[in-house]
């Protein structure tokens, strides 16, 4: 459009055209500027620019390497190798029955219910990280021998249960679902449950015990206050946290994966709700970091409470040490919620 035509349209129209032309010129100028910047970074004309370009490339490469390492380590932690032990409950001692209960997503988990005295409380045994239900069967047998009903299952990402572990966040919902399903049965006490859990299972036990009034007694072994803590402990085992920011980036990734639980406080914040509930905190000397976490939880927990210290963790004990350990667990539950039909 020429000036005569613009003038014929009026001064305002002419001014708008001028503004549009200025904006286009400015946009073109900005684009040319950034193209020049990228061109200099790609083909630096001076020695200083070459040094800066090299340092920037080195930084980006280093960040990408650290981010890749962090992501790989976190993936390994959250997707542990599953070596599920296949057992047929029909031929197992204790005559367990298969009992399925629903979990989020519309699927179901398979559990084993070892029958005790009809109408007596049920003790739910929660295995730990990198473990499965088949590895705690001797404790189940010891409890069943004293007439407790005993229930156990595999947490997600472990044993026979597929999925990705969250080190306690979503596993808590699994335990809640198991309790709800068991409460509908007429052969267990629907209002009194006992819980035992180790590391990840211990965290889950604490979470449920602090919010469910049906938990009448619980024992935790090498428990921790927050799943983020467990994730970092597992990542540190790789030895790669010596690389800068691996721990921070892996923690950031873990929090993003579990973003739905971003407002979930440490379990110690709710321990006061377990006042009046008998509780046992067990520490093992061969897991000092988790042992210290359990000690701090014990200190913050209200009465009644007791503590027990063992030289080794449950899964690493010799047969004799394990029998002694299981005897102490049985005695704790016998004193706290004896297997009777009246409570």
Helix content: 40-55%
Question: What's the level 1 CATH class of the domain at 89-226 and 267-336?
Answer: Alpha Beta
Query: What integer value in Å does the Rg equal?
Result: 30 Å
What structural category arises from helix and sheet content?
Answer: alpha/beta
CATH fold category name of the domain at 89-226 and 267-336: Rossmann fold
Tally the helices: what do you get?
10
Q: How are helices and strands ordered from N to C?
A: HHHEEEHEHEHEHHEHEH
Largest sheet: 8 strands, mixed
CATH architecture of the domain at 89-226 and 267-336: 3-Layer(aba) Sandwich
Distance between the termini: 94 Å
Mean pLDDT: 88
Instruction: Give start-end ranges of low-pLDDT stretches.
Output: 1-8, 16-28
CATH level-4 homologous superfamily of the domain at 89-226 and 267-336: Alpha/Beta hydrolase fold, catalytic domain
Overall geometry comes to elongated
Write out key terms for the chains shown.
343 residues, alpha/beta, Rossmann fold, eight-stranded mixed β-sheet, 10 helices, 8 strands, 46% helix, disordered N terminus
Description:
The structure is a single chain. This protein has helices at about 5-10, 10-40, 45-80, 135-145, 170-185, 200-210, 225-235, 245-255, 290-300, 320-335; strands at about 95-100, 110-115, 120-125, 150-155, 195-200, 215-220, 280-285, 305-310. By secondary structure, the chain is an alpha/beta fold. The protein has a domain at about 90-225 and about 265-335: Rossmann fold, CATH 3.40.50.1820. An eight-stranded mixed β-sheet has the order 1-2-4-3-5-6-7-8, sandwiched between helices. The termini are far apart. Residues about 1-10 and about 15-30 have low confidence and may be disordered.
